[in-house]
Amino acid sequence: MFFCEECGHPFFGDQDALATNRLVDTNQAELAKRLTWGTAHFRSQSIVIRVRDFDEPIRLAAQEEVLLGRSDTKSQTFPDLDMGPYGAAENGVSRQHASIRRGEDTLTLVDLGSTNGTHLNGQRLIPYQPRVLRDGDEVRIGKLVFHIYFE
To answer: Structure pTM?
Structure first.
């Protein structure tokens, strides 16, 4: 209700015309799709990694542990998955950046004290604390982004 500023008389006009309309966020459904995570149960035999801006997927046998990083002949560092061909050095990937570890029925991601950090679905990992991976998760090591799928 509104009142006259001079005399205080109430105005009884169309109050609905003055109300703010609630707008529906058209991106809500799209956001919900992106926030829907896959299963955490890993019953597959392989992992598929799709690196952003690269067409060819990386297929790996599910081992007890897969070391992610970049190769360096000077320090004799040769990770299980060398991210060098995907721009690792330019994107701040450490030589021994992170690992994917296989548990009884899950996979976990562990940052190995990397210089530029590891992120899981936008959340920075605390070094050496495992986080459960889900099918379709987004992982960022340094600034290199990829999605992981169970196959």
So the answer is: 0.74
What is the CATH number for 66? 2.60.200.20
Strands of the chain (E only): list them. 2-3, 10-11, 46-51, 58-61, 65-69, 81-82, 98-102, 107-111, 118-120, 123-124, 131-132, 138-141, 144-150
Domain residues for the domain of 84 are 39-150
- DSSP-assigned beta bridge partners for residue 131: 109
- Nearest of 30, 31, 49 to residue 133 by alpha carbon: 49
Instruction: Burial-class residue 125 by CB neighbours within 10 Å (0-12, 13-18, 19+).
Output: buried
Q: Could you read off the pLDDT tens digit of each residue along the chain, which spans 151 residues?
A: 666 777 777 766 655 554 555 555 555 555 555 555 678 888 888 999 999 999 999 999 988 999 999 999 999 999 999 999 999 999 999 999 999 999 989 999 999 999 999 999 999 999 999 999 999 999 999 999 999 999 8
Whether 15 maps to a domain, the answer reads no
Number of domains present in the structure of the chain? 1
